[in-house]
Amino acid sequence: MSKNKEGSKAFAALQNVGKTFMLPIALLPVAGLFLGIGASFTGASFIKMYHLEAILGPGTFLNRLLTIFNDCGSVIFNNLGLLFAVSVALGLAKSEKGVAALSALVGYFMMYATMTSAIVNFGELERLKKIGGLLTNMLGFTNTMNTGVFGGIFIGLICVWLHNKYYKIKFPDAISFFGGTHFSPIAGALAGIVGGFIMAFLWPYIAMGIAGLGTLIGKSGYFGTFFYAYVYRALIPFGLHHVFYLPFWQTAVGGTVTIAGKSIVGAQNIVFAQMAAGQKISWEAARYFAFEFPVMIGGFPAAALAMYHCAKKNKRKDVKGLLLSSSLTSILTGITEPLEFTILFASPFLFWGIHCVLFAFSAVFVSLLKIGVGFTFSGGLLDMILYGVLPGQARTNWLGLIPLILFYFALYYFVFKFAILKFNLKTPGREDDEEEAVLHTKQDYVDEKNANGESTDSIPAMIVDGLGGKDNISTFEACATRLRVGVNNSDIVKKNLLKSTGAVGTVVHGKGVQVIYGTKVSTIGPEVEDYLGIEG
């Protein structure tokens, strides 16, 4: 029993940390858009291919304007560690979130100032130069080390822990000015100094260990690629996939290369640095992304088509709109949770035993074809055009995705149709008739509550009721596609009621609840926050 409780606490802690990653990650599509457009349209090969020297050539107005876009996108990718430090503190602070974010900002700069100075003053500079690949220039510091998002998360966690512990601290009257929230940035600065000393001597070993892990995965060949993609997708229902993929995307686990004289770590950073520099995109780095395109554009729409054809004839009209809109969302943006959680709730084996396996094989196929297409958020058609088509076939080998997309369309359709019919899975349109009213009719619930004198004239009220009421909610956060909620008692969560509000699924693990709505959560989240009286 105690092990289960410990597991639930660990899960909740990882979920809380993971949700803070979504703040800077949500910024990446915009930054990537600037970088993709800026780098692609100013690339020498693109200009020469389409004979656009007079319009986009060096020195033209458009070239200068697009170069600004390129620089604006690059600054985000070059400073993700700082953004993660602030995001972690902002997301995990119990109160006075703005002060916590400022504390992390101060701590981050103090950490780099201390680390850079310690490298010089304690004789580490020459030793680190001999190792090679560790020293770089960033944030105005020369001969420092890029700790990436790990450094940002490290100092952010320390600063928010100090903030939550001491933001109400009281001092004697003579120094009372430094108490309360005024103490948080001071504590953050001190944490940065200590953290900087630690990083100056410890980070080289951590960096070499991380690089070694990346090398091990690289040497594992297609098995390592398969393993990465399978675990990445298998963690989607738990909301922990951010914790898993982030080291590959943003640290030396995903590789280290030198581009334009700078050491670049992390697969995503490598891809976009190569794009900005007009270089050929490394398929070794892009393999952590490109495998999503065949499934997002081909696989999921085919799975939806299979569900439609397997639905009862009298219900096909009802599910057609849902499956069509979800398919278009998957194709265009790569956001798949409505379809993906439908698969999960129809059959865990269909999700983990079939879908995740097919997903992982896609990673093997794109590696075999050496496809170098990256993305910022998810592998939809828009990202494929921006980061595959526009940079050009010579740099990305994007044409290799076309047969894979067609193959995965056929593969998902026939495999899903067979599994649904063979095992009689309850995919949309195959539910028992008596279940339909309970699961999909809102009016029955409203009538029942109104008969008892309770007001339920809004979706937010129904969602809160489905979560056990206001008193049962301890924490609430709207993520990219789901509501992440901490509850006091998970036994009183009403999954059927939450489904009647439009949720495609509800995951309960210990005291952590995730209610999945897909892209419409961006409007549902604020409405529920207003209903709960949560200030932004």
From TrEMBL:
Residues 8-432 form the PTS EIIC type-1 domain. It holds the Pfam family PTS_EIIC. It comes from the Bacteria. Its main location: membrane. The lineage of its organism: Bacteria, Bacillati, Bacillota, Bacilli, Lactobacillales. One of its GO terms (biological process) is phosphoenolpyruvate-dependent sugar phosphotransferase system. It is a multi-pass membrane protein. It comes from Companilactobacillus paralimentarius DSM 13238 = JCM 10415. This is PTS system glucose-specific transporter subunit IICBA.
